[in-house]
Every structure is written in C-alpha cells, then in structure tokens.
Amino acid sequence: MKAFILGSSQIVRFKSHVQTHDIKLQHHEIQIQGVNRGMVSSLFKYLIDICRFSPDVVFIQIGSNDIGRSEHSVVNIEFAIQHFIEVLFSMNIPLVMVGLLFNRNKVLAKRGLTVSQYNDSVIDLNCKLQHLQRFFNNRMIFWVHRGLQFPTHDILDKHGVHLNTEGNRRNQILQNAIQPPDVNIEDTSTATSMTDDNANDEIRTSINTLSKAVSNLKDHLTSVSDTIKSFKEQSDSSLENQQHITVQVDIMDQPPIHQTGITATITEQTQNDNSNGTISRIGTNNSNYDSPSYLENVTFTQTTCNNTFQSVLPLGATVSDDIKGKI
C-alpha cells in the first residue's frame, strides 16, 4: 500500500513523531510532506511529487491557517479543497481522505478573531468538508480523528495549537490512510470504473435524447413554415379574387361607352357660315378597332344649321337637283 500524507504544520510535527516512534508500518510505502503555516494554495506545488509517487491514498490535513483570512474564508477554503481533490482524481488517484480540523485554545491576534469565533469557523468548515464526501460519491472520505474533535490541554502543546506527543500517538492518520475504515481500495477502483462507465452511458443517453429533441424541433419548424406558406398563398389568392371582383363591379357601374373598354367619339357638325355661305363639315373618328361592331353603341351627334344659303357659284352655273338635295 502506498500513501501520501500532505498538510500544514500539524503534518510537519506528525512526520517528526513518525521518525522517532515505531508505528509498525514497515511493509508500506509512506511519503509525508508538511508545510509550516501552510494554506490550501500551497498544496498544488506538490502535485508533481504526488504524480511521481502514484499513491493509492492521499491524506490531506489542511485549512486551519486559512480561517479568518477573508470575510468568506470558510467558503473559499471549501472550494479550494474541493478543487484540489478534483485535480487528484483527474490524476487517477483512487481515494482521497480529508482530516478533521482541530479546535484551538489560542489564536493569533493578527487574525482578528476570538478563540470562540475561530472554533465556530472550524466547526462550520468541518461540516462543509463532510458534505464533500457525498459530493464525490465516497471516493473522498472525511476522517474524524477519534477523541480529537475537541482537543484538551493534555494533548496540545504549550502553544495550544498543535498536538503534543500524546496527541500524535492518538492520531491514527497513518493507520487509517493505509487501510481506511470500511473501504477496500480494489473495490473502490472497481466502483470508480463502474461509475465512469455509468457516467459515459448517461452522457450517451443525454446526447441521444438531445439529438432527438433537436430533430423533432426541426420537423416542427418545417411544418410551421409550410403552414405559414400555405396561409400566405391562400391570402394572396383571396386578395387577387377580391380585386378582380372589385374591377368587375366598377366596370358594371360605368356608362355603356366604358363597358366595352372603347373610347370612340365621332362628331359630325354641319355649320353654316352666314358671311360667305360656306358649308363646313367637321368629323373626327378616334377608333382604332377593325370591327365595325365596336361602334354599335357609339352615339353620333349631328348639328345642322337651317339657314338660307347664298350661291357662290359662277355666273350662269347651275346646280343639279341631286346636289341640291344633298345640300
């Protein structure tokens, strides 16, 4: 079994304890990396070491130094740890364990927090980290250090912050990292594989469902487009028929001369010029049609002036009776 233990100054002191005490784990490969005053952001620089070591379990004990750094520090710590765990899973780490953060009897004045405020934030953060276990489908375990939830003076050092020798003896980080309670690494790997397969099946099902929905939507839009086109054609046809009927009605309302669409005027006027006895015959014909039938309904106007005509014939000339009749 290979385990990589990573964290803040608590892990620095735990590493010293392991080096000076026989914890009977000689048959396992253990790598411990602690960072004094370490914060969550300091974890990421060890990703290369974790990748090279390729552990079966990564145990994280960190977060207490981040509390009080900002107004929303608890939420920020939760998201940062969650992101780090996601990166570990992307590196094919089978199991990640996150340790319970300890309460303190003292806090640094520069934090701007009282002991009570700090410990309240610790409890809040522990609850959020515990909920991550459900989020990661038990591939991540939140480890509650038995008997260390509310450490007392007998297990804390003189600063009231870190575990003393007795506290580290009670701390079962290594033992539980090597063999997590109620967790079989092989079963976890198999479950992870099955989870990945199930996730892929769900993704394929979702894609197929989405594809069908898009296809149905396209068919619906095509149907709507055809319906709109049909309505438009019917509307255009109806409008054309209405205009045709209106034209017919207008034609029926016009005088007879317009019913045949013919404009024809023939005016014949006979005038008598009393001054010189000249007869003028004026006629106009504005018809361009070949068939005389178009002139059947044309009204002719003839005006005749019945005045006495004076002869302008040469002396001795006579007018025949036929001509006289025409005149």
UniProtKB/TrEMBL annotation:
Classification via InterPro entries: SGNH_hydro_sf (IPR036514)
Name of the protein this chain belongs to: SGNH hydrolase-type esterase domain-containing protein
The organism's place on the tree of life at top rank: Eukaryota
Biological source species: Mytilus coruscus
